[in-house]
Amino acid sequence: PKSGNLGKGRVHFMGYILRGKPCSGKNYKQDSRKGSRVVKNMKLIYRKAGMEDIEILVKTRIEVLRAANCLSDEANMEFVEEQSREYYEESLQAETHTAYLVFDGEKFVGAGGISFFRVMPTYHNPTGWKAYIMNMYTNPENRRKGIAYHTLELLIEEATKRNVSYISLEATDMGRPLYERYGFVKMNDEMILPQVAE
What we know:
Elements: E1 11-13, E2 16-18, E3 28-30, E4 36-39, E5 44-48, H1 54-68, H2 78-94, E6 97-104, E7 107-118, E8 129-138, H3 147-161, E9 167-168, H4 176-182, E10 184-186
Helix pairs in contact: 1-2
């Protein structure tokens, strides 16, 4: 799906629902580069990723997965890396995924992405379009500076531009306070079938 009227309904995150409008700090300004944002009084640059950024997106994805799953550096991630690269190549071209990269000067310090997909329409989501936030990452040395919050804000803004308001994600213990501060509250009407090992 590309920019346009894709869906209306409640804003969700896996196990949570946002009632009313999300909080919005809006303490960044437009940069001269298309798709970029610069936080006021800081050197941080928020740039929308393009095809030229696939390698850094893949590298970040693998780092996020290792941390989220408590995997050592010895864990073989070759297949996941290959599939992640294929995903980014396809989804960035199709505009079904938007990612933001965050830089402190020339140093990469954070990222976040949002994927768009369609399911069967419902009463609360009559078009069936949904968005899934993933790969939220901040360099450990740059945490507690609002980077993840501003990245989340940009991703929600991207969904809003497309009129997609059903937005979900999986939250780690570390990330949950951020999403709750943004305005999400817990919901209990979703279930998952655990994977069965072959």
